[in-house]
Amino acid sequence: MMPELGKYATEVLSAYAVSLIILVLFVLASLWRARRVRNELRKVEERKVQNG
Q1: What is the pLDDT of residues 3-13, one digit of tens each?
Q2: What are the extents of the domains in the chain?
Q3: End-to-end CA distance of the chain
Q4: Distances from the Cα of 12 to the Cαs of 6, 34, 51, in angstroms?
Q5: Three-state SS for 3?
Q6: How far is CA 3 from CA 8, 12, 13, 15, in A?
């Protein structure tokens, strides 16, 4: 299924690996930020309930 890459196999496979690593880092950063924002929102909502 994979085409013959010839003498550029290392470069092409490295580019794929780097791209996948960057994609995973973006997803993890997005999940981390969403978790942080959700916690901040929960804190703000709790303060609002306490203050009436």
Answers
A1: 788 899 999 99
A2: 24-52
A3: 64
A4: 10, 33, 59
A5: coil
A6: 12, 11, 12, 15
- Cα distances from 43 to residues 14, 46, 48, 50, in angstroms, run 43, 5, 9, 11
Please give the single-letter amino acid code of residue 12: V
Instruction: Collapse the DSSP code of 2 into the 3-class scheme (helix H, G, I; strand E, B; otherwise coil) and give the result.
Output: coil
d(CA 35, CA 15): 30
Exposure b/e, 23-34, CB count within 10 A at least 16 = b: eeeeeeeeeeee
pLDDT in tens, 16-52: 999 999 999 999 999 999 999 999 999 999 988 887 6
CA distances from 5 to 13, 25, 43 (A): 9, 27, 54
